[in-house]
Design brief:
Elements (H helix, E strand, L loop, with lengths): L11 E2 H8 L3 H9 L5 E3 L5 E3 L1 H20 L1 H14 L4 E6 L3 H14 L3 E6 L2 H11 L3 E5 L7 H9 L8 E6 L3 H4 L11 E3 L3 H20 L1
Parallel strand pairs: 4-5, 4-6, 6-7, 7-8
Antiparallel strand pairs: 1-3, 2-3
Helix pairs in contact: 1-2, 5-9, 6-7
Length: 217
């Protein structure tokens, strides 16, 4: 949409919003494309993002963060307890907002990889925080996550040396066309389509953990 040329421009540029939200510029563009943020174009063709929609997003994220904080002590205790019980087991973190796919991935891991300790996060921000706590050997990341999409999360992980030995697998229900905007962060990351999880996910995990063991050794 276009605003009147004489209207005061109090809205944000895409780069402003990226800095404000701590996301990549491309991720902000995708949020606009998905309708999560409202945008308009200046007569010169520059994209401006509606300040009210950014404020609403921040308020929603703050509210979500407070809910997470309320249960953080229990969550931290669960992480600590899981680490204590793992007995040196390698950790895997599943970052997926669908309860169905959380359960399916966890079941496949328990059945085929009893040597792994499984942890689950419901959204991108929680997943990033848990990854920092756990430093997992493997992260299984959905692309369409609330708050922070999977590509942005992966780009953030790859910018930190502490995750250099962690392996990544992407889960998605998107086809190649819909997945294309996220490929900026997915170089060399195996992609498992959710319709083929039962056959493809265990195979990919075996391949990646074998590579990791070879590097660590």
């Amino acid at each position: 949409m276009n605003k009147a040329s004489d209207a005061p421009d109090t809205d944000y540029s895409t780069r402003d919003v990226a800095a404000l939200l701590g996301l990549a510029v491309r991720s902000v563009q995708l949020m606009v494309d998905r309708g999560e943020l409202q945008a308009w174009k200046t007569p010169g063709g520059h994209r401006r993002i509606d300040r009210a929609s950014v404020d609403a997003f921040l308020q929603g994220r703050e509210s979500h963060g407070k809910k997470r904080s309320a249960g953080r002590t229990a969550a931290d205790a669960a992480v600590a307890a899981g680490s204590a019980q793992s007995g040196g087991k390698a950790k895997v973190l599943i970052i997926e907002d669908s309860k169905h796919y959380q359960k399916l991935a966890s079941m496949l891991l328990r059945n085929d990889f009893p040597e792994l300790e499984i942890f689950v996060a419901d959204d991108g921000f929680a997943g990033l925080a848990m990854a920092g706590q756990l430093r997992p050997a493997l992260l299984i990341v959905d692309i369409l996550l609330p708050g922070m999409d999977g590509a942005t999360l992966i780009a953030s992980l790859r910018s930190h040396a502490q995750f250099a030995d962690s392996r990544l697998i992407v889960l998605t229900s998107l086809d190649e066309t819909d997945l294309a905007p996220y490929m900026f962060a997915l170089d060399d990351v195996p992609i498992v389509h959710k319709s083929r999880m039962v056959t493809d996910l265990p195979r990919r995990i075996r391949e990646l953990l074998g590579q990791r063991d070879a590097v660590v050794a």
